[in-house]
Write a structure and sequence with these properties.
GO terms for molecular function: DNA-binding transcription factor activity; transcription cis-regulatory region binding. The protein is α+β, with helices and mostly antiparallel strands and 390 residues long. The chain has 9 helices and 5 strands. Strands 1-5-4-3-2 form a 5-stranded antiparallel sheet. It binds a DNA duplex (14 and 14 nucleotides) through β2 and β3.
DNA sequence: CTGATTTGACCCCG
DNA sequence: CGGGGTCAAATCAG
C-alpha cells in the first residue's frame, strides 16, 4: 500500500504550530475587530490538536505505512479535530467561516482555508470525501472479518495509567464516607452504545489508543473479570460546560494488545460533535459527475492519483441527520461495530465523512504539500489565493 | 490555581 | 451476591 511519503526527517511541526496559532489569532482577531472573541482558545486548541495529530501521523508513517487500519484511525482523528474547530467557529458566530456556503468569500484571510473556493472545488472535495469514507472503512471491515492474529503478548501494562505519572496514596489518608451514602447513581441511561476496534499507536506510546479528536477525561478504571487488562472509563471533558454526556470505555483486547475495543456511550451535546458540519449543496448531486474532472488536487495532494481512493460515492447517500448520536463513532467505522455489548448496539449505516471532512482534507492537503527542505510555507497555507480557481 | 488522573469505595442491576 | 459503572478525595502536572 502506497501512502504519503514522509518528508525526510519529518516536518518541523512544533514551529509550525506556533506559527499557525499566531496567524489564526491575528486573523480571527481581525475579523472581530481587534480582540480575540471568547472561546476562540478552544478553537485554536482544536486546530492545534489537528496539526499535532497530523504530525504524529507523519512520524508514524515509516512504521505504519502498511497498516491501513491504523492509518485510517489516525486520519479520522485528524479530520475530526478540524471539524470540531469548524463547529466551534460556527457556534462562535464567525461569519466568515460559513463553510456551508460554496461560494468563496472575497476577503480571504486565515480562515479561508476552511472553505472551498468554488462549487467545483466543493464538489470535487465531496467526491474525495466519499472516497475517503470508503477507504477508511476498508481496513476496518477487514478487521471485523478477520481478527488480527494474536501478537506476542507484552507485559500487562496498565492501559491508561500512562500520563498521570506515578501516584501513591498514603494509607488511610482518605476518609471513608461511610456516613452519607450517595444517592441515585444511575446507570441505565445509556441511550446509544457502539463498540469499535481501534488500533494502538505503532510508535511512541502504544499503551494508548489513538486520539479520536474528542477530549476525554478519565473518571474510572476497573479490572474486568476475564480480561487481562483493566477497562478505562472516560467522559467528555466538556461535560461541565455543555452538559455533554458522551462517555467511552476503552478495553485492551486480550488476544491483541495492540488493539483496543472502544465503546462509546451517549451522545456529544457539546460543540465537539461529529455531527456533519459541511453540507455542500452540490456535494451529493455532483459527486459522481465531477469524478473525472475533480479539481481537488489529487495530483497535488499527498495522495498520488494512482493510489487515490476507489470511487464509491454512494457511501454517503443516507441523510446525515441519521447520524448516530454516539460521540466518537465515525460512520466509516461502523462496519467494525461489534455486537454484543448490550442490547442497544446499533449497526445502522449512516455517513458523516463525506460532507463533513472536506476542510480537513483541504488543510491536510495544504499542509502535506507545503514542506520544504528548511521549513514549511505557511504563506501557502494562509494565502487567500491558495489554489485559487480564479 | 486549575484541570486531569488515580484509585478505593459506593451502588445499580442481573 | 458479585461484576461492572460511577463517584470523589487525594494527588499530580502544567
Amino acid at each position: 500500500m502506497h501512502v504519503l511519503a514522509p518528508h525526510s526527517g519529518g516536518p518541523p511541526f512544533a514551529p509550525l504550530l506556533g506559527h499557525l496559532d499566531r496567524r489564526l489569532r491575528e486573523g480571527i482577531a481581525a475579523i472581530h475587530g481587534g480582540d480575540l472573541p471568547g472561546g476562540m482558545d478552544d478553537v485554536l486548541s482544536q486546530i492545534g490538536d489537528a496539526f499535532r495529530l497530523a504530525g504524529e501521523l507523519m512520524g508514524d508513517l515509516p512504521a505504519a505505512q502498511n497498516d491501513p487500519a491504523y492509518l485510517a484511525a489516525r486520519c479520522y482523528g485528524i479530520v475530526r479535530a478540524y471539524n470540531t474547530a469548524i463547529r466551534m467557529l460556527q457556534h462562535h458566530g464567525v461569519g466568515a467561516v460559513n463553510v456551508a456556503a460554496a461560494r468563496p468569500l472575497d476577503g480571504g484571510g486565515p480562515l479561508d482555508l476552511l472553505r472551498p473556493r468554488s462549487t467545483e472545488e466543493a464538489a470535487g472535495a465531496s467526491q474525495l470525501l466519499g472516497e475517503t469514507a470508503t477507504r477508511l472503512q476498508e481496513p476496518f471491515n477487514m478487521l471485523a472479518g478477520a481478527r488480527a492474529p494474536p501478537h506476542a503478548v507484552r507485559s500487562a501494562a496498565d492501559v491508561a495509567g500512562t500520563s498521570g505519572g506515578p501516584m501513591r496514596r498514603l494509607a488511610s489518608s482518605r476518609s471513608p464516607p461511610t456516613a452519607q451514602p450517595r444517592q441515585g447513581r444511575r446507570r441505565r441511561d445509556s441511550g446509544h452504545r457502539e463498540t469499535m476496534l481501534v488500533p494502538a499507536h505503532r510508535m511512541g506510546n502504544t499503551e494508548l489508543p489513538p486520539d479520536d479528536g474528542y477530549t476525554w477525561r478519565k473518571y474510572g478504571q476497573k479490572d474486568i473479570l476475564g480480561s487481562r487488562f483493566p477497562r478505562s472509563y472516560y467522559r467528555c471533558t466538556h461535560k461541565n460546560y455543555y452538559g455533554c454526556d458522551a462517555k467511552k470505555k476503552v478495553q485492551r483486547l486480550d488476544d491483541d494488545p495492540f488493539m483496543y475495543e472502544v465503546t462509546y456511550c451517549g451522545s456529544h451535546s457539546c460543540l465537539t460533535s461529529t455531527t456533519p458540519l459541511l453540507n455542500f449543496p452540490t456535494a451529493t448531486a455532483t459527486a459522481t459527475a465531477t469524478a473525472t474532472n475533480s479539481p481537488t488536487a489529487a495530483t497535488g495532494s499527498g495522495l498520488a492519483p494512482a493510489d487515490h481512493f476507489m470511487a464509491q460515492t454512494d457511501q454517503a447517500a443516507v441523510s446525515t441527520s441519521m447520524h448516530l448520536g454516539v460521540g466518537g463513532m465515525p460512520a466509516s467505522f461502523q462496519g467494525v461495530v461489534a455486537a454484543g455489548s448490550g442490547a442497544g448496539v446499533q449497526t445502522s449505516v449512516s455517513t458523516a465523512a463525506r460532507d463533513t471532512d472536506y476542510p480537513a482534507l483541504d488543510l491536510a492537503d495544504v499542509m502535506f504539500n507545503s514542506s520544504g527542505s528548511t521549513g514549511i510555507s505557511l504563506d501557502g497555507i494562509f494565502s487567500s489565493h491558495h489554489r485559487s480557481d480564479s
